[in-house]
Design goal:
Elements (H helix, E strand, L loop, with lengths): L3 H11 L6 H13 L2 H17 L1 E2 L6 E2 L5 H4 L4 E8 L2 H10 L4 E5 L17 H10 L4 E4 L5 H14 L5 E4 L15 H9 L2 E2 L1
Helix pairs in contact: 1-2, 5-8
């Protein structure tokens, strides 16, 4: 209908999460209407991100430098690690300005129904991290979903024999919600009300 190049651009954009065919079409038309230098800049930024962004060797966050800025910071409490599912969850907690420990990003949650097991997450990296640098407390801040709860319990069972205090964020966060959409006050209250599991 639109020619090969436009159709291929729409198809590529529609493969992005949360982008349906109509949104992909709108984005494609927007990109095509951009001045050539802005479109080329967008393409270059995407290529540079793909080429240069990697996992932090400590927390598994997405970063340009290794270790990431949070892991490098001397102002963070290295005896406290918050485990989250996604870098966006970490960003949500950072916006509260209330948490001053370190993070560990799992890049997902256990979901046997979807074929996601412990080996598909950054759990082995978490265990290796605990052996290299013992901590006093691990806060499981996975999403309050069935998968998030299962992941928190699994991590708790792995860490408890190591003598590490494992806590769970309080449920001020709505059940079935994603942390990236929760406001800072609710996140702060959930962090303050965490309980040992």
């Amino acid at each position: 209908m639109y020619g090969e190049h436009v159709s291929r651009l729409i198809e590529a954009l529609s493969r992005l999460p949360g982008i349906g065919s109509k949104s992909a079409q709108r984005l494609a038309f927007h990109i095509i209407r951009l001045p050539k230098d802005r479109a080329e800049n967008l393409a270059n930024v995407i290529q540079e991100a793909v080429a240069n962004v990697r996992y932090c060797s400590l927390c598994c966050n997405l970063t340009d430098n290794d270790p990431c800025n949070i892991c490098q910071s001397a102002k963070r409490d290295a005896q406290l690690i918050m485990v989250v599912e996604d870098p966006r969850d970490m960003a949500a907690y950072e916006r509260t300005h209330e948490y001053h420990g370190l993070y560990h990003i799992l890049h997902g949650a256990l979901s046997p129904m979807n074929g996601v097991g412990p080996n598909d997450l950054k759990i082995a990296e978490l265990l290796r991290r605990m052996q290299d640098n013992p901590v006093k407390e691990v806060i499981t801040a996975t999403n309050p979903t069935v998968e998030g709860e299962a992941t928190a319990m699994y991590i708790s069972k792995l860490l408890r024999p190591l003598g590490i205090k494992v806590t769970r964020i309080a449920h001020g966060v709505p059940v079935g919600g994603d942390l990236e959409y929760v406001d800072e006050v609710t996140l702060t209250r959930a962090l303050e009300g965490r309980v040992e599991i």
